[in-house]
Amino acid sequence: MDIFEKVEKLVQKSGCTYEEAKNALAETGGDLLEAMILLEQQGKAAPRGGSYSTRYESQPQYVPVIVEDKKSERERAGAGAKGEGGQKFKEFLKKVWHVLSSNYLVINRRGEQMAKLPFWVALLILFGSWFLILVLIVVSLFFGFTYSFEGEKEREMKAANEVMDKFSRAAESAKEEFRKK
Questions:
Q1: Strand order across the 145-151 sheet
Q2: Alpha carbon distance 132, 126 (integer Å)
Q3: Which residues contact 122 (CB under 8 A, 6 or more apart)?
Q4: Where in the chain is the domain with CATH 1.10.8?
Q5: How far apart are CA 61 and CA 63, in angstroms?
Q6: Average of pLDDT values for 153-167?
Q7: Distance between CA 40 and CA 57 in Å, rounded?
Q8: Of all residues in the chain, what percent are helix, strand and coil, respectively (each to 5)?
Q9: CATH class (in words) of the domain with range 1-64
Q10: Residue 109 phi, psi (nearest 5)
Q11: How far apart are CA 168 and CA 157, in angstroms?
């Protein structure tokens, strides 16, 4: 690109006069970008249509842009934000763990407490050998064992405890019927 084309390009992009563009190119050794920066610093560049300025202070019509970190963007964006599901899942797991560790399966025999297992331990045992455990629970009901639930939310466990009491009473009734025969 010859000097004339560079002057034309600089005048077109900056809005300065031919003389100002020619002087800026001469001062910067023919470098278009440096000449544009120099014109902006001198306040002689007036962008047309779009913005070509590298100086914020000389352009009062520009609105400052606040750059925020990605985490705060996700927090503002709501449910559809990337990573939000992971945070919700993490909170869900915390709640589940709290419920599993603060509630207990209590095993009694003739009014005496034999064991008090946190739900998470009871579930591990149940998942480990569910068929054998269910058979043992049913058989143990016939030998005077009772099962109940204890924990933070007694009201929610009331229905489960009523069901466990019904099983205990049914086992006692079956045992009495067997003795009569």
A1: 112-118, 103-109, 145-151
A2: 9
A3: 105
A4: 1-64
A5: 7
A6: 81
A7: 11
A8: 60, 10, 30
A9: mainly alpha
A10: -140, 115
A11: 16
Average per-residue pLDDT for the chain: 80
Buried b / exposed e along 6-19 (16+ C-beta atoms within 10 A): bbebbbebbbbeee
Q: The tokens of 100 are what?
A: 């599993």
Which tens digits make up the pLDDT trace of 128-159? Answer: 888 888 888 888 888 888 888 888 877 778 88
What is the amino acid identity at position 7? Answer: V
CB 115 within 8 A of CB 104: no
Q: 175: which 2 tokens?
A: 């045992």
Q: Which two tokens stand for residue 65?
A: 């842009």
Rounded Cα–Cα distance for residues 14 and 97 (Å): 64
Taking the C-alpha atoms of residue 38 and residue 87, their distance in angstroms, rounded to an integer, is 49
